[in-house]
Amino acid sequence: MLSAYEIRANNGSVNIPYLSGSTAGTVIVPSLSNCNISGYTTGVSSTEAKVSRPFICGAAPSLAAGFSPAQNTIEDALLARILANGASRAASPSKSTKGYGLVRQYYHLHLNVDYELGDTGVTLTSLTGYNNEYYSQLADLDNYDSSLLRNAAATTANGLRTFWTFPFLVERRNKDFSQEVRATYDKGGAFKAMLGASYLKTEVESDLVSVANEEQFGVARSAGSLSPPGKAETVGVFGSFSYKLTDALTINAEARYQRDKIFAFVGGRSLTISSAIATQYGLTAGTYAPLSSFYNRTYENFLPRVIVNYDVNPDLMVYASFSQAANVSIGSFNTAFLSGTANEIAAAQGIGLQVVTEPEKLDNYEVGMKGKLFNGRVQFSAAAYMADWKNQYNNRTNIFVDPATKVAAIVSGVANSGGTRLKGIELDVNAEPVDGLILNISGSINDSDIKSFADPSISKLTGIIGDGFKGNQLPLTSKYSANFGAQYNGNLTDNINWFVRGDLSYKSRQFVDAGNLTWIKGRTQVNARIGFSREGFTLEAFATNLFNDKNYTAVAQNNILDPSFALAGSAFGYLNVALPELRTFGVKAGYRF
């Protein structure tokens, strides 16, 4: 946790000096702010009043020693009783987490059958698949040690948690069944073809249980802990053909027509859609039972791809391709807030959530080459691409204290945020310049140019809105990356072999959000190995992160949570950073038989 605000515990009460002007109490979260950003009041309109707030600008700083990582993860009889309660849960307590952490189970079945029709060149294929996954995770969402903050509601008699903390139980079950049939034709001639059809059914159940409310205030679990289920049925028809026009020139064409039927469901509380809400979101007014489906929509997409290959000579091939893609998500609908209080509906509208979203679309253009040099000692591939990404999805969340219930509420959903032009180049080289020495080199430039973007939370923090995002890079991805590996193999004796290998990987900085004001630094990691083998037995010594690069591996931003929730409805107040594994040495032995 890298916080822009300082939090103190003053005789059990929370004190935020930025708001109170007082420095009384013990620091439990230090401020790492190095700037004040002039953002907006809500981030919806550029005509809003500006508000100056502290934040972290530029490269994310090092962790404050002694404060982070730190969470409250007490597991006792109180927590056990809460986790044993199966009400409004997507997973049964017997299969779920028994404490802080994650439990996940995954079942997968598939059956593939091929049948060749004599010597006709036709092969019939059936692909059947089934997946059933569920996970259960309990996490301390405030993400700091809050044990010095007293819970005034706790007494010896009621046995509630004596200090303030904010744990949540998040569970989800995913099930899908798929069936595909196809016929392919290939008699070794210039013409090849394929025709097929597919069906996919996906179902999702989930819950979001406020363990905080139950263990601190004794609040009975709400039926609203059950999130609206999800269901999607997808039918597709697809085909392709390949024709060799000359010995050097081949054209490949593919196409898929796909229909996705997405269902919208009610959550754990019954839903009444008023005439006003129905008109605003294009729904049907009425009252709907918990967990029932009240709306569905079918999306139709035609997805083509064309690839042209040309063999310049036996050692070099060049190609060009064009393709279109669509992402129709089972989470295309934001329905949870509809059955909430008026304040939850207002909070969802405040971050621009609609009930129905549109599919993401992508048009992609690519050219490249593949070949070998020096009698095959060097093999390489290179590609350049450009893509237009439209109707991008982005997640939006609003945390606030609902005056109607007096407890913290979380409203979240997905919105079509805008469009981006993507372009880049990629290079991959494998070489053996001399016998025994193997080199692997790869690198890429993945550039992004935001054309349009909108997210009230980002504008609220950064003061960037509308066209101000144009030209910025997409967050959470590196523009530059590279890998280099070198291995040498040798023989000690006729039956004892040895090797030594080193690998270097590099990723450039990643921006936190589309405002591009904050980022985590790039990382360079070196791994090394040396080993011996004899008749199936191997012995190897290794070192990972040899030079102990401590730069973060990922980043996200969040709202500060505290007993007063004074900052929860404000702009983002801190960064979550993922820490790397530090330098590690080890020895590994194995035997193959």
Can you characterise this structure?
The chain is mostly beta strands. The protein has six helices and 32 strands. The chain has helices at 17-20, 77-84, 211-217, 275-281, 342-350, 456-462; strands at 2-3, 7-10, 13-15, 26-29, 35-40, 50-55, 58-59, 101-116, 122-140, 167-186, 191-209, 230-244, 249-265, 271-273, 286-288, 293-313, 316-327, 360-373, 378-390, 393-402, 407-416, 418-431, 437-453, 480-491, 497-507, 510-511, 518-520, 523-534, 537-544, 554-558, 574-578, 584-591. The strands form seven sheets. The protein has a 17-stranded antiparallel β-sheet, with no helix packed on it. Strands 1-31-30 form a three-stranded antiparallel β-sheet, with no helix packed on it. A three-stranded antiparallel β-sheet has the order 3-2-4. Strand 26 and strand 27 (518-520) form a beta hairpin. The radius of gyration is 28 Å and the shape is globular.
Short summary:
This protein has 593 residues and is mainly beta. It is built from 6 helices and 32 strands.
Mean pLDDT: 94
Count of individual helical segments:
6
How many individual β-strands? 32
| Class computed from helices, strands and strand pairing | mainly beta
Described by the principal axes of the CA atoms, the overall outline is globular
The helix content is: under 10%
Main sheet summary? 17 strands, antiparallel
% residues in beta strands: over 45%
pLDDT < 50 runs, ≥5 residues:
none
Termini Cα gap: 48 Å
Calculate Rg over CA atoms: 28 Å
